[in-house]
Amino acid sequence: MKIIRKLALVFGALTVSLLCAPKSAEAAGNATMLPDSSIKVDYQYESMEVTGGGNKVIYYSDNVNAATWMSMPVGADGKAVFDISWVKPGTTTRIYLKGDKDSLVTARYIEAEEKLSVKFVGDISAADVVDIEAWKKVYGNYPSFSNETGYVLFFTKRGGAETAFFDVNQIEWKKGTTGNWQPFQKLNLAQMNAKGITLYFRIKAVNDADTADGMSGKRYSSEARLLVQKKSAAPTVNVNNAAMTVAIRNGLEYSLNKKDWYLVPAYASSSTSDVVSVPVVDFDLFPTTNHRVSAIAVPLILGVGTNAKIDKSLVAANPGKYTCETNEAGEATGIYVYVRTAASELRSASEIKEVVIPFSASDPDVTNDITITYQNTKAGNSGVVVTNNTSSADSVDYQYAIVSDPDNMTPEELSEVKWSTLKAGKTVKISSTKAVLGSYFIFRVAADGKSELPSRYEKYPYPILYDKVTYAAISSTSMYPGGVITAVTSNNAISGDIKYVWQRSSTLSGTYTDIMSGTGAENSKYTIKESDIGYYIRVVISNVSTTGEYAEAISKSSAKVIKDPTIKVTPTPTPTPEP
């Protein structure tokens, strides 16, 4: 490139000399030209230095045809120095030179400045550039830059496409228009955003080196302006204990260690995608189109399974992963999550909000604490009855929900579950429109205020199936010996075999004992015997559901069995004594 430029200068100078000089060098008294090596450009101070040689005056101009050339006498040091700050920076300019002795015209190019632009990004990995890995290598040497402060990326353009400029050591900067230029190494963005400030950047000038042609230098680049915004306050973030979510919305990012940050992407309101991607996992957050992220499930933030137990055991099993809140005794009581507004092209990251996710309540004991029965109606599928068996002496408040697939819920699905409270010793009836066939009950221990999360949930082992015996009643033709008592059960489709056990007791509320047992429809009827006189009779109807769940229902007791009053007994005549 230098050879081409050199030839261009030489041919240009020769052309000019042929146009302006006498017809032959000899006619001009063997006129000579200033050698290239005598010309140096000081781009830093915007001056040009010419070693005079035998010349006492050096003439210069940006127009070879100028009527008046500017002149500068050669000083006692044998050099003439003149200012070139008037040379327009936007275009390449040719400066013509000659001396009073070396009168043939020579020329020196002053290249146009490089056009510098600067881009601020919060995170290099998320930057809209094609040189992400190259930029990471550059800033690996500058620990004062991070995705908390943001990064400045530089690009240059000179008549063509814009290209990345990685040699940041050649960058210098200043504060405002009146500041002093400083080397890039002294730039610390964390010190700049307390109030916000305007910074200017440029590529350093390079003076001509001591080479044969002396044309290795370049002028300062254009100045690039960057407004560093004032650092914003920490965002407002709350933990929703009941939903087990943290209000980390679009544009925020969170961390467990203040080192690894996870961004919640900010989607435009016109977005039509239902799928939102968080660096931890991909998930189908909401089925509603355009629903922006407003909260993230606690298991997702902590990087654990949907139904993980969040307590000291989780911390112990993951040493170094979590930073914990502790009480006065030094015991861990919760896990810190750090949240901030993510840096962007307009601002650095905000102050950090420290949020505490408390530990979970103790695990539920559904087997002993919860009873589920089906409502005792002839319709059979009218709903479910749920009872919290814990007493006031050992009370546990539960929450319950009805879900379709408790074994495969995502953290987001768990956060959207609608829970209802069932206090100790209480019973609730749930209609079949809510207790949907095939769904499951899940239970968890309710949180004790905001100081803890609800426990992990436990699934009731059987699905909601209306194939169980839920109703038992009796009807009879009469309550005398020989009368027939018929057992009546639910109208719904009961699975498997139905078992009828007939019982009797001498008192209405006394102890009933089996009087007949068997399986099959033939035992749905019982014929009263003479031995039943004086007793009350009832039936116990039972079955085993499709899933193996045993169910039974007990009818109300019959009236007391008595002798048939319509049957008259002829008294036996008293024999006449013999005379």
Description:
This protein has 579 residues and is mainly β. The protein is 8% helix and 31% strand. The strands form eleven sheets. Strands 17, 18, 22, 23 and 24 form a five-stranded antiparallel sheet that branches. A four-stranded antiparallel sheet has the order 4-3-6-7, covered by helices on one side. Strands 12-11-13-14 form a four-stranded antiparallel sheet, with no helix packed on it. A hairpin with a 5-residue loop joins strand 37 and strand 38. The longest helix is centred in the N-terminal third of the chain and has 19 residues, at 2-20. The termini are far apart.
The gist of it:
With 579 residues, the chain is mainly beta. The strands form eleven sheets. Strands 17, 18, 22, 23 and 24 form a five-stranded antiparallel β-sheet that branches.
Q: Secondary-structure blueprint of this entry?
A:
Blueprint: H1 2-20, E1 39-42, E2 47-51, E3 57-61, E4 70-73, E5 79-83, E6 93-99, E7 106-110, E8 115-121, H2 132-139, E9 151-157, E10 163-164, E11 171-175, E12 182-183, E13 197-203, E14 224-228, E15 239-240, E16 245-246, E17 252-255, E18 262-263, E19 276-278, E20 281-283, E21 296-297, H3 298-302, H4 312-317, E22 324-326, E23 332-341, E24 353-358, H5 366-369, E25 370-374, E26 383-388, E27 398-403, H6 411-415, E28 420-422, E29 427-431, E30 440-445, E31 458-459, E32 472-476, E33 484-489, E34 499-505, E35 513-519, E36 525-527, E37 536-544, E38 550-554
Antiparallel strand pairs: 1-2, 2-5, 3-4, 3-6, 6-7, 8-9, 9-10, 11-12, 11-13, 13-14, 15-16, 16-21, 17-18, 17-23, 19-20, 22-23, 23-24, 25-26, 26-29, 27-28, 27-30, 30-31, 32-33, 33-36, 34-35, 34-37, 37-38
